């Protein structure tokens, strides 16, 4: 389906966008490579959607440039950019059937696709998304999950340089979200599609992305594979974005027996890296505050010198509130005063 | 759970009690009767004879006649019974009807051209007002227009003046431009008055249509105008229908400007109807017949667009 392409499909160079007094995007640079599933992860208001809209041309950047397939498109209209966009909501036309909704992008006067080819593309796409039986339905007569499939399908009928997706799953319930997450990844692999996907959901980012870009206040903080971002975050903020329950952040001076590099202000310990054991002479002792039973595992909330820490424990391990336990840290992450990561000492 | 709720519906907060339903139904019927009575009276009067129409106490039961309609569509002259006796026998039922009153038909009346004027001016100005209003409303809704709020207020303010206040300047202006007593002049005038209403109503409707719809079309390679036609208009159809009805009702019923600016060529029905004169004053059955015919197009138009109107009046009124 795809022809030979340049290595990077989309390159953003130092783009900035300001709305009144709000700086939505600040000097952001990013390259999306061919066939890559890049997820921009950040809270609402971080500038994720604005970044997508700058790429589509629905907004014009105040500074910087947008390159698509090696072409500078910074000032081109949206229609000539060879992009498909999946909106968070409202992307289906209620006055059209599912078939006509899917055919809509192909029927654009600029594209002039012959009707038999449209039919073929629409049917293929519907097949891919398991909505072939719904083609004659009105767009409004679908369940939430089906609507979202059609919305994604509207992008997939085309063969653009890049698919941009703005939280396409966020309005669905948890079960559907999990289901579509898997399917989206399957489809991306099947088509070899390049996708730039925006979300605030770390699970979506971790499960689908070939690379994750963590974004906050209009700035890209770190970009790397999910594993890189999880295991070696560049700052305490990035560390706290991924992982559930959140990473434990502990002031360094409270630690005992743990060697940290000079300048370390905060130490981050992921829940699975905080191990507990019965008291046996270790110097870090915490008190069990509360145990949450989740079935397959327990979340143990610990009080350590006034700080609350969370760790995982085997549900069969007998633990009671008030019990004192010994703490052992594995792979602590060290951050300086500004929250930037300090490389750990080599043991 | 559901069964229990259904059983106790009489005490439910959402479901009205049977008594409340009867009271509400009664009120609706009462209102319907009050509204429809004058209309029925007019329809009935059109079938009365001259004397039955002005009889006191009013006659509810009468012998129906088509005299009113015949009088509406014809001009007649009174003749002596001798003269009428000498004429060849009447060719049509209405010739016969007129001769019974010692009259002969001299020609058609002006009601048909007046009615045609009303149709052309009413629908013409409605179309123009809705067309221009849609474009303006779309622009106000979607683009950053400098001083948009002031412009919108200015547009609305044109409706705050009563016609009398602007009658003289408009009359002078129209005389200068040779627009008095022309259909074009009346269409322009009604369009100007209606466009303000259209812009305001339609802006509300278009504001409700998420802009993501058009943006999706823009990304897919449609131009803004194509997106407007393919995406926005089909979804604004409810609002457009409601607006069209309001505009048509205004220009259809407009009386003050019509009296002032039209006398012959471009005269519409409203100034024509009250001056249907028979012998010795107003020809009430003919007036009633004219009124009946006058109401029909607007009823048809409203019934045709009823589906949209019902949703249209509430839609756009609710702000989220």
TrEMBL record, chain B:
Domain ABC transmembrane type-1: 115-305
Taxonomic path: Bacteria, Pseudomonadati, Pseudomonadota, Alphaproteobacteria, Hyphomicrobiales
Keyword presence, Transmembrane: yes
Transmembrane helix in keyword set: yes
Matches recorded under CDD domains: TM_PBP2
Primary residence: membrane
Keywords: Cell membrane, Membrane, Transmembrane, Transmembrane helix, Transport
Subcellular location: Cell membrane
Coiled coil (residue ranges): none
Family: Belongs to the binding-protein-dependent transport system permease family.
SUPFAM superfamilies assigned: MetI-like (SSF161098)
UniProt-recorded name of the protein: Carbohydrate ABC transporter permease
Membrane topology: Multi-pass membrane protein
Spans through the membrane: 22-44, 119-139, 151-172, 184-202, 231-252, 284-305
Source taxon at top rank: Bacteria
Record organism: Bradyrhizobium agreste
């Amino acid at each position: 389906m795809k022809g030979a392409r340049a290595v990077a499909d989309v390159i953003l160079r130092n783009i900035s966008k300001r709305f009144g007094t709000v700086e939505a995007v600040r000097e952001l640079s990013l390259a999306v490579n061919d066939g890559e599933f890049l997820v921009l992860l950040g809270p609402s208001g971080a500038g994720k959607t604005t970044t997508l809209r700058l790429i589509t041309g629905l907004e014009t950047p105040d500074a910087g440039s947008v390159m698509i397939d090696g072409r500078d498109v910074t000032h081109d209209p949206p229609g000539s950019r060879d992009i498909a966009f999946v909106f968070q909501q409202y992307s289906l036309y209620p006055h059209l059937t599912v078939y006509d909704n899917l055919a809509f992008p192909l029927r654009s006067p600029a594209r002039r696709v012959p009707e038999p080819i449209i039919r073929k593309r629409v049917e293929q796409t519907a097949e891919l998304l398991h909505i072939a039986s719904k083609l004659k339905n009105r767009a409004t007569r679908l369940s939430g999950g089906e609507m979202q499939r059609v919305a994604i399908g509207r992008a997939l009928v085309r063969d653009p340089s890049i698919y941009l997706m703005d939280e396409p799953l966020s309005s669905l319930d948890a079960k559907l979200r999990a289901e579509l997450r898997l399917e989206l990844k399957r489809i991306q692999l099947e088509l070899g599609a390049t996708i730039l996907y925006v979300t605030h959901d770390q699970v979506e980012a971790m499960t689908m992305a070939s690379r994750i870009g963590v974004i906050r206040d209009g700035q890209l903080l770190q970009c790397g594979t999910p594993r890189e971002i999880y295991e070696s975050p560049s700052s305490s903020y990035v560390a706290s974005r991924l992982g559930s329950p959140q990473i434990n952040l502990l002031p360094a001076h409270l630690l005992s027996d743990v060697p940290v590099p000079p300048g370390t202000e905060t130490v981050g310990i992921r829940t699975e890296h905080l191990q507990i054991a019965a008291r046996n002479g270790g110097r870090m002792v915490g008190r069990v505050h509360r145990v949450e039973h989740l079935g397959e595992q327990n979340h143990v909330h610990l009080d350590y010198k006034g700080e609350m820490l969370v760790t995982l424990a085997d549900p069969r391990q007998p633990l009671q509130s008030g019990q004192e336990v010994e703490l052992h840290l594995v792979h602590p992450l060290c951050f300086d005063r500004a929250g930037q990561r300090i490389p750990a000492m080599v043991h | 759970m559901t069964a229990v709720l259904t059983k106790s519906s009489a005490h439910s907060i959402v479901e009205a009690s049977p008594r409340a339903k009867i009271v509400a139904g009664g009120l609706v019927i009462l209102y319907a009767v009050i509204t429809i009575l004058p209309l029925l009276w007019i329809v009935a009067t059109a079938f009365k004879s001259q004397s039955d129409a002005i009889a006191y106490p009013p006659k509810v039961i009468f012998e129906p006649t088509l005299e009113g309609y015949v009088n509406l569509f014809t001009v007649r002259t009174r003749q002596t019974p001798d003269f009428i006796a000498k004429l060849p026998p009447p060719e049509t039922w209405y010739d016969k009807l007129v001769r019974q009153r010692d009259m002969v038909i001299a020609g058609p009346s002006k009601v048909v051209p007046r009615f045609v004027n009303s149709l052309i001016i009413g629908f013409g100005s409605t179309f123009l007002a809705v067309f221009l209003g849609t474009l303006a409303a779309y622009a106000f809704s979607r683009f950053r227009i400098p001083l948009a709020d002031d412009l919108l207020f200015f547009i609305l303010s044109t409706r705050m003046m009563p016609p009398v206040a602007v009658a003289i300047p408009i009359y002078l202006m129209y005389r200068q431009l040779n627009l008095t007593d022309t259909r074009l002049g009346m269409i322009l005038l009604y369009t100007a008055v209606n466009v303000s209403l259209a812009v305001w109503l339609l802006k509300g409707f278009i504001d409700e249509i998420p802009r993501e719809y058009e943006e999706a079309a823009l990304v897919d390679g449609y131009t803004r105008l194509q997106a407007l036609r393919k995406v926005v208009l089909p979804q604004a159809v409810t609002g457009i229908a409601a607006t069209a009805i309001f505009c048509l009702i205004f220009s259809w019923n407009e009386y003050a400007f019509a009296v002032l600016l039209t006398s012959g060529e471009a005269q519409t029905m409203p100034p024509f109807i009250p001056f249907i004169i028979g012998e010795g004053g107003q020809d009430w059955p003919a007036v009633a017949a004219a009124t009946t015919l006058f109401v029909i197009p607007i009823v048809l138009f409203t019934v045709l667009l009823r589906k949209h109107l019902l949703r249209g009046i509430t839609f756009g009124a609710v702000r989220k």
